[in-house]
Design brief:
The model has no long low-confidence stretch (mean pLDDT about 95). The protein starts with a helix and ends with a strand. By secondary structure, the chain is of the alpha/beta class. The protein has one domain: Rossmann fold (3-Layer(aba) Sandwich). Helix 2 packs antiparallel against helix 5 and helix 3 runs parallel beside helix 4. A seven-stranded mixed beta sheet has the order 3-2-1-4-5-7-6, sandwiched between helices. The protein is built from eight helices and seven strands. Bound molecules: S-adenosyl-L-homocysteine, 3,4-dihydroxybenzoic acid (DHB) and magnesium ion. The site of 3,4-dihydroxybenzoic acid (DHB) has 4 residues, from loops.
Length: about 220
Amino acid sequence: MGIDQETFTGVDRFVEATLAPDDEALRDALDAAAAAGLPPIQVSPAQGRLLTILVRLVAARTILEFGTLGGYSTILLARGLAPGGRLYSLEVDPRHAEVARGSIERAGFGDAVQVRVGPALESLPGLEADGVGQFDLVFVDADKPNTPAYVAWALERTRPGGLIVADNVVRRGGLAEAGSGEATIEAQRRLHEELAREPRAEATTIQTVGVKGYDGFTIVRVVE
Ligand code: SAH
Ligand code: DHB
Ligand code: MG
């Protein structure tokens, strides 16, 4: 076994077979997304399991997600919700949102989850107007150049002790490259610089390999 994609995939498959098994609802969500032609860029089963664990760890009752896609991560987040908890997921593409709503409903979370359609930055004022103002966990996984803006917004609205998780911050190592001129990479570097200056953020970034290749996520704990 070398340090190559085949090995990363093999290890993820083993983890899925042992610790992160799929089930009817997750298979259904992936099948519905594939049938509708959505890109297969959802979190991996192992990463999704981590999301469920983090939600339980903070006993989350209110979750915000940026980037619904077909609802795969949404279902795994919702599974960790405390009874009566709510999840708001923001999605710009109405087709993605429609597919996601079906899968979320069939997974049993039709009442707990609301998918709101529109560019996330434009959906945020509406959330506040509806009195949804404080989150226990925020998962940022939409358009990557806006990740710093989403995290900045979330920092103001995540309770002390709550978590903000941002996906796709390492980008095959691009994070280490200054002056790349690539908006997605520059944004992830800015995210780190802004978090470093933010006294209410206790944050780190973990590089990952697996079925989705080489990437990583940032976890922010909002300081009491
Ligand atoms: N969280 C999903 C994957 C999300 S992929 C999962 O792991 O299952 C990124 C999603 O963000 C896509 O569905 C894309 O349409 C959406 N997106 C892109 N730009 C957006 C924006 N400005 N506002 C909200 N969603 C956006
Ligand atoms: C890709 C992966 C993601 O996890 C995501 O949220 C968006 C895009 C990708 O590999 O292109
Ligand atoms: Mg992602």
